[in-house]
Backbone:
């Protein structure tokens, strides 16, 4: 992944309450990575799997996990997130020899030592993918509601107008974030939603 | 999908002055390929080309091929998607919805325009309304109206 991503404000994507959760055991490294990522997003940190699990909620958009540490089991964190209905993208920090083998299990990989710019670029890219995933899911749910109102018998004009207004607002955001993704990313994220 | 590119070509050619437009097709019309890739063939004598996408490939391959074709032809291209009804034979409504948003995004980003057909008679009304939220305008044609009648814009939610 060698493209440089603009920050979200430049393409009109609101970060809202989106957070990045950094799971790294080494205190110095954890503080450094958190400081780099705080330039773009609110950052939470965890030095143990129990801490990470406690911090996993619907605001976490990107999970950054040190795969070189035995403390964190990537699959368990992802499973916990799925059980909680959280939608996030996963970046693994790994040593070069194993980095390639991780690409099937996570959305992005940053090779150690994690270079500041590489980390920011990867997390921005994953955040963009995560935001598209979430916004598309919300837009679909709202479209379902709209269809229920239009085809049902009980909708009031106010209710219908309110949903139409929310759809119009959300669509603008959805289009902005969708247009900002490369073709492959957009298809991959959209078609892997469940 | 259910129609071959040649079903479209002749009527379209009659609608445009000779040489004023070129036509390209991306088709999943049952032409199977043993390789997992799109295959472009220039159809000698018709001045058009057809890119066949094997319908056993994931829908993503079809979408990417459409996106590539629209990008290759550039701004001002008119894209006709025929049809959402066929698409819904391959994937469920939510997958179709997500897929279409990406295709719409690629078309818009290129500066092209798209027209997407659906046979409203074969889907439940909620499905049609749900999909309609993706589009700028919905035009409904009644096949029982006499020829020459115009479609009635019913608008979209946005």
Residues:
């Amino acid at each position: 992944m060698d493209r440089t991503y603009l920050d979200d404000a430049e393409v009109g994507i609101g970060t809202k309450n989106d957070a990045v959760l950094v799971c790294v055991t080494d205190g110095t490294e954890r503080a450094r990575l958190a400081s780099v990522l705080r330039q773009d997003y609110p950052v939470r940190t965890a030095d143990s799997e129990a801490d990470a699990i406690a911090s996993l909620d619907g605001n976490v958009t990107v999970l950054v996990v040190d795969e070189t540490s035995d403390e964190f089991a990537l699959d368990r964190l992802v499973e916990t997130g799925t059980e909680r209905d959280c939608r996030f993208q996963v970046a693994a920090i790994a040593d070069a020899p194993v980095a390639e083998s991780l690409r099937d299990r996570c959305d992005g990989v940053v090779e150690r030592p994690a270079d500041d710019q590489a980390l920011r670029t990867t997390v921005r890219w994953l955040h963009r993918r995560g935001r598209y995933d979430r916004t598309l899911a919300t837009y679909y749910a709202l479209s379902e509601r709209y269809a229920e109102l239009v085809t049902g018998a009980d909708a009031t004009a106010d209710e219908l107008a309110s949903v139409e207004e929310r759809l119009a607002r959300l669509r603008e955001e959805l289009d902005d974030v969708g247009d900002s993704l490369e073709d492959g990313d957009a298809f991959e994220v959209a078609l892997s939603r469940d | 999908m259910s129609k071959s590119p040649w079903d479209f070509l002749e009527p379209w050619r009659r609608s445009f002055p000779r040489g004023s437009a070129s036509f390209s097709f991306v088709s999943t019309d049952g032409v199977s390929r043993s390789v997992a890739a799109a295959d472009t063939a220039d159809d000698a004598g018709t001045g058009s080309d057809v890119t066949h996408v094997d319908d056993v490939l994931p829908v993503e391959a079809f979408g990417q091929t459409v996106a590539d074709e629209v990008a290759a032809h550039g701004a001002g291209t008119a894209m006709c998607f025929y049809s959402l009804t066929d698409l819904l034979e391959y994937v469920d409504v939510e997958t179709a919805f997500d897929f279409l948003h990406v295709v719409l995004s690629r078309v818009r980003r290129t500066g092209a325009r798209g027209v997407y057909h659906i046979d409203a008679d074969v889907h439940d009304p909620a499905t049609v309304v749900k999909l309609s939220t993706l589009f700028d305008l919905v035009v409904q044609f009644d096949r029982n109206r006499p020829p020459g009648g115009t479609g009635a814009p019913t608008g979209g939610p946005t």
